[in-house]
Amino acid sequence: MTLIKKLFTEELKKAGITVNGTQPYDIHVLDERVYVRVFLHGTLGFGEAYMDGWWTCEDMAGLTARVMRAGTIKHAQNFPDKVLSLTQKAFNLQSIEKATEVGEKHYDIGNDLYAAMLDKRLVYTCGYWRNAKTLDEAQEDKLRLICEKLSLKPGQRILGVGCGWGSFAKYAAEQYGVSVVGITISNEQLTLGKELCKGLPVDLRFLDYRDVQKEFPEPFDHIVSIGMFEHVGPKNYGVYMKTLSKVLKPAGLFLLHTIGGGGADPWFNKYIFPGGYLPRMEEIIQATRDTFVIEDWHNFGPDYDRTLSAWYENFNTVWPTLKATGKYDERFYRMWRFYLLSCAGSFRAREPQLWQVVLSPTGVSGGYKSIR
Fold it and tell me: What is the DSSP annotation of 314-367?
């Protein structure tokens, strides 16, 4: 124990973190079993130890940013990390049989939770903070940015792959006069999304992307996928791109909005996003090689730090009300706090990225005009 504790303490010192120190980003150990747990189980053990109340930290995002910049997270990777990496390579964890698991375990947790945490439009992806001052403004600006990148025109028919609660569909139909077909693998999102989009030319369906062509053989003017590609998995990238290329008109555009960086984390895979995997740039390039021309690649990853921090502030403010429902306990609170703030810190450290990639079937004649 003494040696493991020493190694743990010295590794954190490299990141400027003092165990039981006075800075808000310092870690405070409440149960010394945490040292062995992290040694044996890496990042999975670190997250679970926090959920169990074995350690705490006032500035979780600051702690995460510092340890990631120093490479401490990579050093902490252990057996579970290696097993997950090998499993992702060997098996299709996002097959059509397993695809609905993330919907059931994450997106179906409760619409009350997401309504309390997110902006008024229920956008559960990174906001665009270039000119925004509030979360509502950042999310509306993001939706407008996507519509402008696609050059939407009244009367066009759009496919939304991973439509969430219909936030993009509702905005695009109201503001640009288009009709939208949206697909999701979350029953809770679908139920509320249909209610929110009532009266608009919006058709939301419970459907896997692999079945789109069967249901909608008529090609769409444009396609948008916002925050869904993280659930596709590397073994399915080729199928994903080929499937969508078949339902897009030759002159259409496909906007892919995704977190990028590469790989999966055992704690997040177990507790937050089952089967989740962040694509690498080269994997996207390879997957689109025979189906699309990459017209534009926009990275605004630092905006996710601000978005996640805003979500946490909302969640933390309404926590007493959520707790009173009896659906969420203190362990859930610690899990959700670890999720939101550690993600905010990782984007602050510039470890993952946020990409908007504009694709076309054969290349835009004369070139695509980038919009920021």
Answer: HHHHHHHHHHHTTS--HHHHHHHHHHHHHHHHHHHTT-SEEEEEEEESS--TT-
Write out the DSSP string of 265-306. Answer: -HHHHHHT-TT--BPPHHHHHHHHTTT-EEEEEEE-THHHHH
Where are the chain's structural domains?
Answer: 2-90, 101-301+352-360
pLDDT at 71: 84
Write the CB contacts of 139 (distance below 8 Å, at least 6 apart in sequence). Answer: 118, 119, 121, 123, 127, 128, 167
pTM over 0.90: yes
| CA quadruple 56, 61, 65, 67: dihedral, nearest 10 | 10
**Nearest Cα residue to 92 out of 266, 231, 280, 256:** 231
Please state the rounded mean pLDDT for residues 5-30.
95
DSSP letter for each residue of 84-116: HHHHHHHS-TT-TTTTTHHIIIIITS-HHHHHH
Residue with tokens 């507790």: 271
101-301+352-360 is classed in which CATH architecture? 3-Layer(aba) Sandwich (3.40)
Distance, in Å, from the CA atom of 48 to the CA atom of 341, rounded to the nearest integer, reads 15
User: If we measure between CA atoms, which residue out of 156, 372, 357, 185 comes closest to residue 248?
Assistant: 156
Write down the mean pLDDT value for the chain.
94
Q: What is the mean pLDDT of residues 266-284?
A: 95
C-alpha dihedral (29, 62, 16, 78), degrees to nearest 10: 60
197 is catalytic: no
Structure tokens at 215: 């249901």
> Nearest CA to 150 among 268, 255, 263?
255
The token duo for 51 is 């959920």
- pLDDT tens digits along 56-101: 999 999 999 999 999 876 545 555 555 555 555 556 667 777 778 9
Candidate list 57, 147, 163, 343, residue with the active-site label: 343
Helix (H) or strand (E) holding 258: strand 248-260
Tokens at 26, concatenated: 């310092």
> The dihedral of CA 167, 171, 174, 179: what is its sign?
negative
Percent of the chain with pLDDT over 90: 87
